[in-house]
Please model this.
Amino acid sequence: MFAEFDAVLLARIQFAFTVAFHFIFPAFSIGLASYLAVLNGLYLWKKDEAYLRLFNFWIKIFAVAFAMGVVSGITMSYQFGTNWSVFSDIAGPVLGPLMAYEVLTAFFLEAGFLGIMLFGRKRVGPTLHMVACLAVAFGTALSATWILSVNSWMHTPAGFAVSETGQFVPVNWMEIIFNPSFPYRLAHTLTAAYLTTAFIIGGVGAYHLLRGQRENPGVRTMFSMAMWMAAIVAPLQIVLGDLHGLNTLEHQPQKVMAMEGHYESHPEGAPLYLFGIPDDEAQELKYAVGIPKLSSLILEHDPNAPMEGLDTIPDDEQPPVAIVFWSFRIMVGLGFLMLGVGAFSLYARWRKGLYDNKWLHRAALLTSPAGLVAVIAGWITTEVGRQPYTVYGQLRTVDSVSPLAAPAVGASLMAFIVIYFFVFGAGVFYILRLMHTPPHLGEETMEETRDGPIRTSGITPAAQVGAEGVQTPHPEPGPAE
Model:
């Protein structure tokens, strides 16, 4: 059924599907790990039961989201060897070590302390447990740092040379790691993760406030902390996004042209198009609605600054404008929507109605997935805007794909879609069920949900049957055990 399809397009769709599905979970778990570390620190400092019950409430959700992020990430990485083997061969000498460093530093750090964070509060003491929380939070951010270094290098390659065999080989590792777009992409992405988590937490808090949990200290604390984060981080994210856009204009001008819908050059100031229908064949933005000279003012800080358009770029060097144009507007629109909710929360807090304003609660609940959608829209803008290259200006996408027939790629794509929706759909459903129950006094911790550890070998202890046929509980282990 896929015989008439383009194998390169199917491989791109498959990678886009798996990476978009995967990044939902790190975007949530990066911020949630830091939130848990803050909650644990506040509990140890203030001895307030509300922080402990919130920690115990969110730690279970974090464990599920973290696991799904790891599994979906491993599946995604296999495609470098299956669908993109030529890319792996050519760029592997540069990108392979960076991805290995991510495993050896960040992933090992997370894996080493995750068990202590989940199960160790009563086993290792409060100090080491707090260290574990901080280590996991730092590990998630460090993991994102390495991955974003890899991704940024693909957009702004630096510090490399091309060998006689056509491979990219490292020349200066500092230039490779800290390539021109890396600082901006790292700041923008990490801030997006924290903002995404704040809106999810705020949405859960709003849900329980609307269900009559206004006197629940855990719910009140959850919602208040989330709204503070939204009010502070949303404007910061817009500023960082603007800086990232200026960096993109410097290094990838045709991406910005596609984002702005500028098919034609504007020698006396470019308009900011709000809406329109991009037509790549006709090379025009049909039914355009824009504000004169505002794009030049934003991008060049001069309303009369000339702006080049896609008419200066060869047709085979242009990205697909329609996808980039609309995904960018979705991302920006949701960013300003989240900014509005954050400002609304400040107003409600000032009026002493943070926990009573149902309109705020409805707004927070409706915008709870806004961060996730904005993150995906942002990645679509970034990655589709890089086309037709995998390594910008150096390696084209059509030259990066494995020599596979379209039916083989299409069959694996269908398998991914079916399995992902069944397996990860079940995981998301379970997370939503955990969110449905409000945090309460005596919230079970991870170690309190089972009678004991699962034995992977030997005999699993069972309740003992006495002489009179009455079951007795498991004996407590003695000092020697």
Q: What stands out?
A: The chain is about 65% helix and 5% strand. Residues 456-481 have pLDDT under 50 and may be disordered. Residues 7-46 form the longest helix (40 residues). Residues 20 and 379 are 8 Å apart (CA to CA).
